[in-house]
From TrEMBL:
The keyword Transmembrane applies. Its main location: membrane. InterPro entries: 7tm6_olfct_rcpt (IPR004117). This is Odorant receptor. Coiled coil: none annotated. The chain crosses the membrane at residues 47-69, 89-108, 167-188, 233-250, 298-324, 330-347. It is found in: Cell membrane. GO terms for cellular component: plasma membrane. Keywords: Cell membrane, Membrane, Olfaction, Receptor, Sensory transduction, Transducer, Transmembrane, Transmembrane helix. It comes from Anastrepha ludens. Interacts with Orco. Complexes exist early in the endomembrane system in olfactory sensory neurons (OSNs), coupling these complexes to the conserved ciliary trafficking pathway. The gene is OR69a2. It is a multi-pass membrane protein. The keyword Zinc-finger does not apply. One of its GO terms (biological process) is signal transduction.
């Protein structure tokens, strides 16, 4: 295996790509200060960011007003019930709102995020430490006692890079797929001799440029299509920013907790400075716990809203798929998969963080603590008691972010699906 020196920026490739796509850099830290120098390009990025954010907020309002503004359209003449219009609008508002509150949270807590990044940069091992640990362990399967453990950079880098790469491709595919359906439908209606042209855009949303028949003109369809495409781009991009940032921060925490477990397991209790090394690792553990708490505090709002919004959106989009036309059902299949995958990823992420922290007490027990001094063994006992409770992401202390929570969301979504279906 080829040895490689890693830097914190190696793990930031996809989060930085997501922020680049949305023309937004929400926080300043020593790793990106050079990008915030006054320039024409920076001003243009901010203007584009303000435009797409405003478009996203306007889309939410357009969906809301569509429920109350009466229009005589070809769509309402096609036996679409009031319930299906309501469910469709609410489901789409869930999607667009998820992008808004994620970006608002990142923007509002940008100083806290920058401070966490600074701490992670200071905590990240230098090239000298990486080289020293790698040479001491020599890439062997079992770590040697007294070598200080080993960081598994390659494993976590490849794992996070693969996951974020797949998510980026999925978001790109879903966005393209969702916006191609209206175009394909329009082409089909234009070339079908017995098919009337409805000029149906992505969603039923009200805009000032509507006439009394909504999208009954080509110009109205084009304007509505591009406005909604911009809003969907912003919504999907902001969701990517939020989830990639969470994945990056959690990957760093798993990397450090995994190293701590290996360092505790290889700790030599018989060494002259064993007590000093143990105290250093305890301080290291305290630092990691505080960082986890800070990360959890920053994203408490998005964790809570993600659980609530995903539960409602999955049920509403699933119900909308069976109540409206086939073309719209095909479109909303992308929305259902979006919330299923997005919720699965961040619940699985929280579950993996809990799992890696559970290894600490086991690593302590399997070290040669019995060869240490009385004070060393006493400290080991208290440390084991402290690590018996794993580190967890929680939504304001209400529920743990885990796969068990994900299964409860699916169960509750199905219950809402049947309850809403009974109203039809």
């Amino acid at each position: 295996m080829t040895f490689r020196i890693y830097k914190l920026q190696n793990f930031l490739e996809y989060p930085e790509l997501a922020f680049k796509w949305t023309f937004f850099e929400p926080f300043v830290w020593s790793g990106n200060q050079h990008r915030h120098q006054p320039s024409y390009g920076l001003q243009m990025k901010r203007l584009i960011y303000i435009f797409i954010t405003s478009t996203l907020a306007a889309q939410v309002l357009a969906l809301f007003f569509n429920l109350y503004v009466t229009h005589n359209s070809l769509e309402t003449e096609s036996n679409e019930s009031g319930e299906s219009d309501l469910f469709e609008a609410l489901a789409l508002m869930c999607f667009f709102s998820s992008g808004l509150y994620k970006m608002w949270n990142i923007f509002w807590r940008r100083d806290d995020i920058g401070r966490v990044l600074e701490e992670l940069k200071e905590l990240f091992p230098s090239a000298t430490i990486q080289t020293k640990l790698a040479e001491a362990n020599d890439y062997k399967t079992e770590l040697k006692r007294g070598t200080g453990g080993c960081y598994r950079f390659t494993y976590y880098d490849q794992k996070s890079r693969t996951l974020m790469g797949r998510l980026a491709r999925y978001f790109t595919f879903s966005y393209t797929y969702y916006n191609l359906v209206p175009v394909v439908q329009l082409i089909y209606e234009m070339f079908s001799p017995n098919q009337s042209i409805t000029y149906t855009a992505q969603t039923n949303a009200w805009y000032p440029f509507h006439n009394q028949n909504k999208h009954s003109t080509f110009i109205g369809f084009v304007m509505s299509f591009f406005v909604q495409s911009a809003a969907e781009y912003a919504g999907a991009g902001f969701v990517m920013c939020g989830i990639f940032l969470i994945l990056f921060l959690t990957t760093q925490m798993k990397l450090h907790f995994d190293y701590l477990a290996s360092a505790l397991e290889t700790l030599d209790a018989s060494a002259p400075d064993a007590l000093k090394q143990l105290k250093r690792l305890i301080n290291y553990h305290n630092h990691l716990l505080r960082l986890c708490k800070d990360i959890n505090d920053i994203f408490n709002l998005t964790f809570t809203l993600d659980l609530i919004v995903a539960t409602i959106a999955i049920s509403l989009m699933g119900l909308t798929m069976i109540m409206i036309s086939f073309s719209r059902a095909v479109m909303y299949s992308a929305g259902v998969s979006f919330f299923l995958i997005n919720t699965y990823v961040f619940c699985k992420n929280g579950d993996e963080l809990t799992t890696v922290t559970e290894k600490l007490s086991t690593a302590l027990y399997y070290s040669n603590w019995y060869e240490g001094s009385v004070e060393y063994r006493r400290m080991i006992i208290f440390f084991i008691m402290r690590t018996s409770r794993p580190c967890e992401y929680q939504a304001y202390g209400y529920t743990v972010i885990s796969m068990e929570t994900y299964m409860r969301i699916l169960k509750l979504s199905y219950q809402l699906f049947t309850a809403f279906g009974a109203l039809d």
